[in-house]
Amino acid sequence: MERALNEAFQRHVAWTSDAPLGLVVESASGPYLHLANNRKLIDLISGIAVSSLGHGHPEVLEAIRAQVNRHLHVMVYGEFIQRPQAEFASLLAANLPPSLDTVYFTMTGTEANEGALKLAKKFTGRTRIIAFDGSYHGDTHGSLSVTGRSVYRRPFEPLLSDVHFLPFGDIEALEAIDNRTACVITEPIQGEGGVRVPGFKWMRALRKKCTSSGALLIFDEIQTGFGRTGKLFAFEQFDVVPDMLTLAKAMGGGMPLGAFVSSGAIMDTLRRDPPLSHVTTFGGHPVSCAAAVAALRVLLRERLPDRARELERQIRSRLRHRAIVEIRGMGAMLGMQLTSDTLASRFVNACLESGVLVGWTLHSGSLVRIAPPLNIPSTVLHQALTAMLKALDLATQDQSRNHG
Ligand code: PLP
Question: In angstroms, what is the span from residue 137 Cα to ligand 1's centroid?
């Protein structure tokens, strides 16, 4: 049975690298992944910042079941009034500033960014897009065009042509934003780029420059959103409101769902000249939206953004080791900078051996990511942290033995 499964994975499922983790998942519940052969992992990466309520939260499952019994897909996005979409959009708007009150649903994060970039071009009538070195916005053509790592863009060029990259966090470089700029897209905290937090002054200067030049400011909160950094949205950490917000990952409570959010006035641009200028079949799938309503209600009721800050305190105070150069990030979106790529890879493997799943980033081999479910019980977190400290001991011993 296991062999047939492995063979199917080897032969028929497309791989994204030569070394996938290849673990067989039987089920998942709360902070745990249950694997074949009775192995169990504590999940400290949450499917990369998705399972903020843990796996299979009962209220999310119940909402999914109820919606499945009502209806699945009924019509392309935007035509019918679908209860879960309307309910989720108004719940989201109630928790955002008044200028972010109109939600366009997608399936994924990269599609949310595609929609936001198109909307900015159409609304401003400009073509230039500014993005930042080290950013990650997704892998479709538009999102890849604004992703700040040339190694990932190069094989797919030519991409969008009028895109310019600035150094992340550099105030002087913001002078490049001018009245030819349609939009500036940034993650408030870069995730895949190595969990990099920009300065408050830079954020304020960015907002000011966008306002004065008429460029729309897009915050990609696909990873930072829904409580992960200790506020419902990371823009609240910087006291800066973007013109557009893109969301996905944790939003659907484990179901695929994305969105770009803006004001009614900006969003109306997509209604006409021509009508239907941006459409999607599955955007805002009713089952995903029903799950999202339940997930957001739980997140707010249980004050999980506050819990993210508490997790950060616990992790920072326990995770001390000579191999850790620094811990970057905010709330439950943290990156442990280790001394080398080899050490990081040994550490991740040693953690796996002892039953803890930690993350890696696409762009930085010596950084190990920690993004636990926000409701992970403290006892489980501490068990994981103890295992991680042991894994660090083991990985550094191996390293010095190999060097000696
Ligand atoms: N933007 C950010 C900041 C992300 O972290 C990701 C995914 O990791 C994306 C966009 C792309 O989202 P998706 O994989 O749902 O297309």
Answer: 6
